[in-house]
Amino acid sequence: MSAPDRIPYERYFEILVVPERGVPLHSYAYLRRLTSGMLEDSPVWDTHTHLGRDRDGRALDLDDLLRDLDEYHVDGAVVFPFDDPEQGDDFRVPNDRIWAAHEKAPERLIPFMRLNPGGPWEPEYTRCRDRGHRGIKLHPRAQDFTLDSPAVKELLAQAAADRLPVLIHTGYGMRAVSSDLARIAEALPDLRLILGHSTFIDMPRAISVLAPYPNLYFETSVVRAYDLYAVLDTIDPSRVLYGSDLPYASSANSLHELAVMANIAGIDVARFADLFGGNLLRLLGRR
To answer: Model's pTM, two decimal places?
Structure first.
């Protein structure tokens, strides 16, 4: 790695990455120190969490989700279904579970619908939109579709017209998708597209290709440290959204990694409130 491209590890010492005696590395006290106390008075919202169960055996219920959020003073989260074994052709059953969870904790949970562009997505889209779902989750690998398919183009155009943000999985199992995403962003400038996992499978090319599009947002869950540094060092902080990918990661790991890498990248501490929740709330019209 050439000198200009390396992570400036010496900045670890500037931010006092090693806590004082008696402060555990994974603790809210340490997170508060890393963020200079900015999160005490600013809402913290997670852009990427699941509820229900997945075909891979993972599961997360509402109580466990809220318990994880509460431990690190996270105010709330976007929630959507896993790749649920009861998804059917249209995700109707798991989408109903997401809505039921939202009704139990409406101040804590922002419901996104999950759709399968390869199935009869239009009736489920309309049903969930009219009910109050605030966005859409798409997973090209799990549902086996490409971003340039006619159905996906139609779905994204409808989401843009309805001002619904779309979170697309761009992490494990995906091929390089930067060119496809750039074409979408250019064709649909009103579409608010959240890049789940910040397209880390296509780094560093994704940074240079996608940086010019202000309607693309980089979500930080399970992004490797160097790739997260590249995002924070290059992309405007107003386009970066905190995410955890619960239950595949934890609030503890996700919050600490973003805080440490934001410090190392030299992000002004005054922007931390945006990174950890403000950007998402503005994107959803809640702030």
So the answer is: 0.93
